[in-house]
Amino acid sequence: MQLKAEPEMAGKVVRCPGCNTKLSIPATLTPASLPPPSGLPAPSGVTPPPPSGDAFGTEYEHGASAPEQQSASSSYQPKERGGWEETDPANPNPWLALAIGAVASLAWFGIMFPFGKGAPGTPPQNTMDYLHDLFLERTWVNYTETFFFFWAIGLIYLKIQKLRHQKDAMFLDVLPAELGGEINRENVGHFIDHLYSLPGRLRDSMMVNRIRKGLELFEIRQNNGEVSSMMSAQSDIDGSRIGGSFSLIKVFLWAIPILGFIGTVLGLSTAIGSIDLQVDDISKVMGSLGKVTSGLGTAFDTTLLGLVLAMFLNFPMNAVSKAEDDNLNNIDAFCNEVLMPRLNDGGGVAGGDTNGIMDTLVKAVATSQKEFLVDLNALSKQVKEQADNLDRRATAHQERVDAEFAAALNRMRDDLTNAVKDSVKTTTDYTRALSSGIQSLNTLLSELGGKQILIHQVKKKGWFSRE
C-alpha cells in the first residue's frame, strides 16, 4: 500500500493506517527529490524517484509496495463495480455510547464511594468527602446528571474514534502519479480500480468515497463541471451529517442543567416542607432546622453539579466539532487542489470533444438563469412582505383611529347627557321650590280671609324737617 507523508514528518516513526504496523519515514531525502505534484514533469537536472515507493521515494519498513504500472490504453474495459457499503462517518452508535456511559458512571461511583466520612447528612470533613456526598448522598437528580454526562462523553469518545479513522484515510495515496499525470477517459478506470484495491477499513471514509464517486461520474460523463457540482453537493451532505451527529450531545448539554434546576426545586420544596415552628418543643424546632439546611444543601448542590458537568461537557464537544470541520475542509481542499486540476475532459484541447464544452456552457447558462429566478422570487417575496406589512399597519392605524373616534363620541355623549340631567334636575328643584312658595302664599292668604291690612307711610325725618 502506498502512503503519503508531509516533509516535516521525515525521520519520524509512525503507524501504518492500514495494518497499524510501526514504520519509519526516511529522513535522508530532500524536497527536491520528491515526485512533482499532480504528475507534472520533474524539474531539469532532477531525477524522479522510482514509482514503487511512498511519497519520499522509498518503501516503508513493513514491506508494502506500490501498485504496478498499468498502461493507459483505449482497450481498457470497465469492470462491473457495485461500490461498497458505506458506514456513517460521523454518527456514533447511541446504544454503544449508552453502555460506555453506564460502565463509566458505575466506575465513577465506585471511585467516590470509599471517600465518604461520617454518617450521611453530617457536614463534609474534607474535599473528597464533599465530592462523595455530592455524587452519592443527594437526590436521584445527581445520579441522572452523572449518567447523562458520561453517556455524552461516550458519544464524544466514539466520534473521536470515527474522526481518527477519517484522518488515517487522509494518508492514503488515492491518486498515484504512476498511473498518469492527468485523469482522462482512457485511464480513469485504473484510478477507480486502485481505489477498490485499498484496504476495506480505510476506503470506507469520506475522502475515498467522495473521490470514488467523482471518478465514477467522470468515467461516465467526462465533464469537469458535473464532477465539481457533485463533489460540492457531497461536501454539503457530509457537513450536514457532521452537524446532525451532535444532536444527542446537545440534548444532554441542555438536559443536565435543567435537571440541576429540578433538583433545586425539589430541595427547596423539602426545606420549606420541613419547617416546624412549634415553640413549645425546642427539640422539634432544632430537628426541623436540620432538615431545612439539608434540603437547601441538596437544592444548591444539584444546580452546582449540573452547571459544572455542562461546562465540562461543552469544551470537548466544541473541540471535536472543530476537528471534524477542519478534517472536512482538508478533504474539500484536496478535491479542489489535487483531484480537479488533474481531471481532463478534453474541453481544453484543440479538436477535443465539444460536447463537454456545450454541456458546460448550457449548464452555466441554466445555473445563471436559475440563480436569477431565485433572486427574483426572493425579491418579489420581500416586496410582497413589505406590502402586506404596510397594509397591516394601515389597517391597524385605521382601527385605532376608529376606536379613538368612537371613544371620543361616547365621552361627548356621556358629558352632554350628564349636563342635560344636571340642568333638568336644577330646573325641577327650582320649580318645586317656587311651587312650595306659591302654596305657602295661598295658605297665608286663606288664613287672612277678609281682614284688611292698613299700611301707613312713615315720613322720614331730615335735618330741617318739622314735627
Short description:
The chain is mainly α and 467 residues long.
What does this structure look like?
With about 475 residues, this protein is mainly alpha-helical. It has three domains: about 1-35 and about 50-60, no CATH class; about 95-345; about 350-425. The protein contains ten helices and two strands; from the N terminus they run ββαααααααααα. The chain has helices at about 95-110, 125-135, 140-170, 190-195, 200-205, 205-220, 225-245, 245-275, 280-340, 355-450, and strands at about 15, 20-25. It has a two-stranded antiparallel sheet. α6 (about 205-220) packs antiparallel against α7 (about 225-245) and α8 packs antiparallel against α9. The longest helix has about 100 residues, at about 355-450. It starts with 12 loop residues before the first strand and ends in a 19-residue tail after the last helix.
Q: Main sheet? A: 2 strands, antiparallel
Q: Could you tell me the number of beta strands?
A: 2
What is the arithmetic mean of pLDDT?
Answer: 76
Radius of gyration: 47 Å
Please give the count of helices.
10
In percent, how helical is the residue content?
55-70%
Class by alpha and beta content: mainly alpha
Query: Which strand-content bin applies to the residues?
Result: under 5%
Strand order of the largest sheet: 1-2
List the helices and strands and how they pair.
Layout: E1 13-15, E2 22-24, H1 94-112, H2 127-136, H3 140-169, H4 188-196, H5 200-203, H6 206-221, H7 224-244, H8 247-273, H9 282-342, H10 354-448
Antiparallel strand pairs: 1-2
